[in-house]
């Protein structure tokens, strides 16, 4: 959620802050200050195109490998009852780490079996770290090793966590696109119906989860992804949901809050990249595979079915190797 915003719990979609409780009103009042802090912090937690110097073929394999690891991370988090926001935080750590000068990261950027194994280990260590920081429950290194079928020992995973922390300079609390999205939702006109909040939340989260899987989006700031997702989601609302005057006021509020032109080329290019037409037209019902919380659902981030080539048991799946198309353990 947007830091300092009213907490929203439970499996059902959160009730909109449009309800105008005293805490919600106070949170809305300090929204500009919170956003200014978040926008400053996101510049300190940027990722880079770490495959830029790779050959075209190696870049394609690296992008495919990353996409598969992201899907596995989201699946594993869901099966273990963790929020998808936690999985996406782990992906953010992995992207920043992969572009660092750490020895493990340098190996992971390669295009061979050793690189694939290093990338797997880094991904597991990032998930291990994200759970520690974002979940009340614990996940020990032995369990993470078991999830990888023992391909990486608990000692390797714990050592990888420390290497990640050092490479990130212990900066592990940067704002996420999901948190920026929560702040944007606070800008919805108070006269709007709760269904508007719920639809915008679902459709924005869907795109944010897909952006996490898209390598082309890792160099984008989380705020850019969140704004583009919100604008795309807004286009899916009917005039009956949100009249034109209120819609224009909402867009103006976003522009002023983030101090940007919503028609800027980068925002428009990002909106096209998110491909909203692949998201459902409205809120999707909660499923047994999705933990409660404000993480939303997205078809591309669902728990993978046996028909997708994966097992329904987390212990039976692990990060993938270069060139593999199914979620299974790397054959050493």
Describe this entry's structure for a reader:
The protein is mainly α and 332 residues long. Helices cover 53% and strands 0% of the residues. The protein contains 13 helices and no strands. The model is unreliable at 5-23 and 282-332 (pLDDT under 50).
Sum this structure up briefly.
The protein has helices spanning 22-29, 31-42, 56-79, 84-98, 103-108, 113-134, 141-147, 154-167, 177-185, 194-213, 222-235, 244-258, 265-274. With 332 residues, it is mainly alpha-helical.
Overall residue-averaged pLDDT value: 79
Strand content: under 5%
What fraction, in percent, of the residue positions are helical? 40-55%
* Order of helix and strand elements from N to C terminus: HHHHHHHHHHHHH
Pick out the low-confidence regions: 5-23, 282-332
Structural class: mainly alpha
User: Quick one: overall form?
Assistant: elongated
Largest sheet: none
């Amino acid at each position: 959620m947007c830091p300092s915003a009213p907490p929203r719990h439970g499996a059902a979609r959160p009730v909109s802050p449009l309800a105008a409780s005293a805490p919600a009103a106070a949170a809305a009042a300090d929204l500009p200050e919170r956003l200014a802090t978040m926008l400053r912090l996101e510049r300190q937690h940027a990722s880079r195109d770490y495959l830029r110097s790779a050959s075209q073929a190696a870049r394609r394999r690296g992008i495919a490998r990353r996409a598969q690891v992201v899907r596995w991370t989201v699946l594993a988090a869901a099966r273990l009852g963790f929020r998808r926001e936690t999985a996406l935080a782990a992906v953010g750590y992995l992207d920043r780490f992969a572009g660092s000068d750490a020895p493990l990261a340098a190996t992971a950027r390669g295009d061979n079996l050793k690189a694939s194994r290093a990338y797997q280990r880094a991904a597991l260590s990032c998930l291990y770290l994200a759970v520690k920081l974002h979940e009340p429950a614990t996940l020990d290194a032995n369990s993470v090793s078991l999830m990888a079928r023992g391909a990486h020992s608990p000692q390797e995973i714990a050592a990888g966590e420390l290497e990640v922390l050092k490479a990130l300079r212990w900066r592990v609390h940067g704002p996420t696109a999901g948190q920026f999205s929560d702040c944007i939702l606070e800008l919805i006109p108070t006269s709007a119906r709760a269904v508007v909040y719920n639809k915008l939340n679902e459709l924005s989260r869907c795109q944010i989860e897909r952006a996490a899987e898209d390598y082309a989006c890792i160099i984008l700031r989380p705020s850019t992804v969140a704004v583009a997702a919100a604008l795309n989601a807004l286009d899916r609302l009917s005039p009956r949901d949100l009249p034109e005057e209120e819609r224009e006021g909402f867009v103006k509020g976003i522009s002023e809050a983030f101090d940007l032109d919503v028609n800027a080329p980068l925002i428009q290019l990002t909106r096209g990249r998110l491909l909203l037409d692949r998201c459902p037209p409205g809120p999707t019902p909660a499923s047994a595979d999705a933990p409660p919380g404000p993480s939303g659902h997205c078809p591309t981030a669902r728990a993978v079915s046996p028909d997708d080539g994966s097992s329904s048991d987390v212990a039976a799946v692990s990060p993938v190797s270069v060139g593999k198309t199914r979620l299974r353990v790397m054959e050493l």
